[in-house]
Amino acid sequence: RLPERADGAGLALAQDQPAGAATALARGAVSASLATFPTLATARLRLLPLEVADAPALHAMTDDPRIIEAIDFLSHPFTEADAAALLAGRGDGRDRFIGIWRGARMVGVVGAHLHEPAEIEIGYWIAAACHGQGYATEAATAVIARLRRDFPDRALIAECRPDNRASWRVLEKLGFRPTGEAGSRPGRARLALSSP
Asked: Do the Cβ atoms of 162 and 66 come closer than 8 Å?
């Protein structure tokens, strides 16, 4: 059973999403947006697009110095209000945070960010107590497959600090390769997903 949101609303599975939404996006009938990113499932995980109502769970999982120090856009300390602001975003559908749930517990997040002219950046973080269990690879694999389906003409990129060996290994497993360029954030290298 999927976890309930704090607002009491049930969570829908991918097959319950509006018919044709992804197809319309892929055909360009609607401007590029991640606002309708669906719920996904893997063998062990549920991947649920996060809403402002999920701020308490995001805060509880993320307010850890090991996570906050690794992700430059997270404030320190990371409060519930910060979590709500992050999830509210700019309201333009260009950024989407997808919760990684194992049972009723959020164990991580995958972020997807539309960049112009034709890129999508992905990133992720996993609760420190859940490192080494393959959650980042499993969740990001599912998100990447959906992004490739919905946005076939966009390149997938990531940024990572070269000294973050665990995250770098995850990106390599996913098929990302260094481009030789610096990332847009300090101390990060840019990686691009190889063609399938």
From this structure: no
